[in-house]
C-alpha cells in the first residue's frame, strides 16, 4: 500500500471506532433511562427510550456497511481485517443491548397502570448496577484495546447470572404470596431476563476484544456457577 | 476477473450456500425436537437438543469467516457482495434460532419434575406450528432466491405475535387459578417468548433475502396488529 492508501485506511478504521463509541454511548443511556423509567414507572421517559432505538439500528447498519466496504476496497490482512470483523460483531452486540433496554422500557409502559410492588424491583436494580458497570468496562476495554479488562468482564458475568437466579426465585415467591402480583411480577421476570441477556452481549463484546487484540478465540464455555446444560436460558443460570 | 477466478469465486459462493443450508437443517431439527421434548417432558431428547447447539455455533463462525475471506480476496461488487453479506446475516439469525430452541430444551429440563398442566402447552404447540412453517418457508425462499415467498413470511409474522399475546393471557390465567401452576407456567411463558423471537429471526431472514435479490432494504416497521411502542418485547405484541 502507498502512504496515501495507508492514511486513508487508518481514517476508515478511526471512523468505525468513532461510530462504535457513539453506539456505546446511546446504549448506555438507553439502559440507565430504561431502568429509571421502570423504577419510577415513568411513562414519558420509557417512551423516550423506545424512540432512541431506531438511531442505534441505523448506526449499526452504517458500521456494518462501512466495515464491509473497507474489507472489499482495502483487502486488509491480519490485525486490520480483525478490526473490521470486530467492528461488525461489536456493533451487532451493542444494537442488541439497545433492543433489550427498549424492551424494559416497553414493559414499563405495560405495567405503569398496574398494582405496584416496589420491593419486587430491588433485585432488578442490583442487576442493573452490575450490567451497567460491565457494559462500561467492556466499552472502555474496546476503546483501549485492553485485553485484561475484557477478560475481567468475561469472568464477572457469572455474578449477573447468579443474581438473576435469585431475582427469579424472589419474583416467583411474590406471585405465590398474592395472585394480584402475578401480572406485574411476570413483566419484571422478563425485565430481569433482559438484563441477564445484556450481560451476555457484554460478554460477547469482551470475547471480540480478546480476538481483536490476540487473534485468538475465547473458549466456548463461559464461567458458570452450576453444571452446564441445566441452567436457564442462554448462557445464564436461572 | 479471469474465467478461472470467476469459477473459483462461484465455488466460494456455492460452499457458503451449502453451509447455510446445513445450518437451516440443524436449526429446524432442534426446534421440532425441542418442542417434542417439551410436550412429552422428555429429558433425554431435551439433552440431545442442547448438545446440538455447538455444531450450529461452529457452522456460523465458519460461514462468517468464509464470507469475509471471500470479500477480502475477491473484492466482489453489487450482487456478489450482497451474497456474502446475506450469508453473514442469515447464518447469524439461524444460529440465534438454534439458541432459542436450545433454551426451550433447557426449560424442559427444569420443569420435567414439576406438576404438569398439559392444557398449558396447547397454545405453545400452535405457536410452534406457525414458527416451523415460517422457518421452512424462509429457508426455501433463500435457497430459491424467491422474493415473493420471503415477503409472505415477513407479513405472516404478525400471526405469531397475535398468538403469543393470547398464550400470554392464558398462562397468566392458569397461574391465577392455582398458585401451584406458577412455576411451571412461568417457564412456559419464556418458551412462548422464545418461539415468538424465533419468528423475529425468521422475519430477519426474509428481510435479508429481499435485500439480497433486490438490493433494497425492507421498511424498518414490521406489520403489527396494534400501535407500535406499546407492544411487549422485541417487535412482538404481548
Automatic annotation (TrEMBL), chains A, B:
GO cellular component term, pick one: cytoplasm
Keywords: Cytoplasm, Phosphate transport, Transport
GO biological process, one term: phosphate ion transport
Pfam family membership, one: PhoU
Principal cellular location given in the protein's record: cytoplasm
This protein's record includes keyword Metal-binding: no
UniProt xrefs under InterPro entries: PhoU, PhoU-like_sf, PhoU_dom
Subunit record text: Homodimer.
NCBIfam families (UniProt xref): phoU_full
Family assignment from sequence similarity: Belongs to the PhoU family.
Function comment: Plays a role in the regulation of phosphate uptake.
Protein name: Phosphate-specific transport system accessory protein PhoU
Native source organism of the sequence: Methylocystis parvus
Gene for this chain: phoU
